[in-house]
């Protein structure tokens, strides 16, 4: 290429500047050289990303969370992944106080102290916090924050985060699974030893009963001992069932019988301060079910009802057959198909629940109880049980109005059993029999 003249050099410099500002530039210069030969130079310039724009593009496509805050904690930047996960547009959060808007109240003071410490010490910091989404869900995130200074003045605090919610839950599940395994082993051992003691009690009671056949009153005492020992043996058998890690197996079962068998165990769980009221289906109804899993689901609901009625109250247990003429989509990702169902309703007169708590009810490890009172897995097991049975769980509750859990199990196709019942009012209704 021949040397450019002054005008061409000025034109070239101008083109480079325009390209740097984001424009496409193209121009041609023509030169006449020796022997009247003409040379054309074709110049084309395309915009290229500067370092800042390049980094911004990486942030925009990153699967991690990025947020930039000013010295007061107001949001200046938030990347698309974080916005999408939290359920907001940037227009909704721009200029908001990040800590007040996204951090749970019980963590706000700690996070603000860490934020201020980063600025005062001009150093990076790392911490784990919870984040509240627009829809009420809480995430757990691990953050690395660093203050960015421009001309010795704070420009912004830049934070990079990773969603570790699933990792935290996985670790908790592993620990809880190990606890349950140990509890199962303990329950199995206790049931075995207790059965040995009961066998001796029943044996001696039978011998005593035989030798006292002529004394009616003493013979009746011996019979009472035998009866009580038999009841204890039945309870021990259920404790043994709890300890077994059997696979989930569905087979035709008589659901009325399962419910009636569990009522006595439920009465032991709720205790004497709580009265029990029963209104059970009188005719047979068969479902395809796993008896042990249904047993655990009922006991979990009884335990929840007991905890909601610390000062005493009434536990209601009712059942009926109900028919739905069309399929329905229900809360908690349940879908109710058309057909006949066996409904078990367990109600309490306890403290009830707010809508916020109801929305989180079946989340793993969510609990309103202290760490020494609940694991947050009881209702998760109920949820899993109903999913496995292709059934539905519905919840009706309001603060200070008590709670009703309705478990709906699909009846097997050849079951035509009916029972007199009145369909309760509610957002989901069917024909009761």
From TrEMBL:
CDD domains, sorted: HisKA, PAS
Enzyme Commission number(s) of this protein: 2.7.13.3
InterPro entries in alphabetical order: HATPase_C_sf (IPR036890), HATPase_dom (IPR003594), His_kinase_dom (IPR005467), HisK_dim/P_dom (IPR003661), HisK_dim/P_sf (IPR036097), PAS (IPR000014), PAS-like_dom_sf (IPR035965), Sig_transdc_His_kin-like_C (IPR004358)
Domain Histidine kinase: 189-413
Protein's UniProt keywords contain Cytoplasm: no
Residue intervals of the PAS domain: 51-122
Molecular function per GO: ATP binding; phosphorelay sensor kinase activity
Record keywords: ATP-binding, Kinase, Nucleotide-binding, Phosphoprotein, Transferase, Two-component regulatory system
Catalytic activities: ATP + protein L-histidine = ADP + protein N-phospho-L-histidine
Pfam short name (any one): HATPase_c
PANTHER family associated with the record: C4-DICARBOXYLATE TRANSPORT SENSOR PROTEIN DCTB, SENSOR HISTIDINE KINASE
NCBIfam families attached to this UniProt entry: sensory_box (TIGR00229)
Listed name of the protein: histidine kinase
Biological source species: Candidatus Wallbacteria bacterium HGW-Wallbacteria-1
């Amino acid at each position: 290429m021949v040397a450019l003249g002054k005008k061409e050099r000025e034109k070239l410099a101008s083109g480079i500047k325009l390209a740097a500002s984001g424009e496409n530039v193209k121009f041609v210069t023509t030169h006449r050289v020796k022997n009247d030969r003409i040379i054309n130079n074709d110049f084309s310039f395309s915009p290229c990303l500067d370092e800042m724009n390049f980094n911004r593009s990486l942030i925009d496509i990153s699967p991690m969370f990025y947020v930039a805050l000013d010295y007061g904690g107001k949001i200046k930047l938030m990347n698309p992944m974080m916005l999408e996960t939290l359920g907001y547009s940037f227009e909704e959060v721009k200029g908001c106080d990040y800590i007040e808007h996204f951090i749970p109240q019980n963590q706000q003071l700690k996070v603000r102290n860490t934020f201020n410490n980063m600025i005062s010490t001009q150093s990076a910091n790392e911490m784990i916090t919870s984040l509240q989404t627009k829809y009420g869900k809480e995430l757990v995130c691990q953050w690395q924050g660093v203050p960015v200074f421009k001309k010795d003045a704070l420009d912004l605090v830049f934070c990079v985060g990773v969603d570790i919610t699933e990792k935290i839950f996985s670790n908790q599940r592993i620990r809880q699974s190990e606890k349950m395994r140990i509890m199962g082993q303990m329950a199995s051992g206790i049931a075995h030893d207790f059965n040995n003691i009961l066998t001796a009690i029943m044996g001696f009671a039978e011998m005593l009963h035989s030798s006292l056949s002529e004394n009616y009153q003493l013979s009746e005492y011996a019979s009472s001992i035998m009866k009580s020992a038999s009841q204890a043996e039945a309870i021990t058998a259920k404790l043994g069932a709890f300890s077994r890690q059997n696979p989930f197996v569905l087979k035709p079962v008589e659901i009325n019988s399962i419910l009636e068998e569990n009522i006595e165990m439920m009465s032991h769980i709720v205790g004497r301060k709580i009265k029990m009221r029963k209104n059970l289906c009188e005719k047979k109804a068969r479902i395809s079910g796993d008896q042990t899993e249904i047993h655990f689901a009922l006991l979990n609901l009884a335990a929840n009802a007991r905890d909601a009625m610390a000062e005493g109250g009434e536990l209601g247990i009712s059942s009926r057959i109900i028919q739905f003429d069309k399929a329905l989509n229900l809360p908690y990702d349940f879908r109710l198909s058309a057909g006949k169902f066996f409904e078990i309703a367990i109600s309490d007169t306890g403290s009830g629940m707010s809508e916020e708590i109801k929305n989180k009810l079946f989340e793993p490890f969510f609990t309103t109880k202290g760490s020494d009172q609940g694991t947050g897995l009881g209702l998760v097991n109920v949820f899993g049980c109903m999913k496995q049975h292709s059934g539905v769980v519905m919840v009706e509750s309001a603060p200070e109005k008590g709670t009703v859990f309705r478990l709906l199990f699909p009846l097997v196709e050849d079951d035509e059993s009916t029972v007199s019942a009145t369909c309760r009012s509610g957002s989901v209704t069917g024909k009761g029999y």
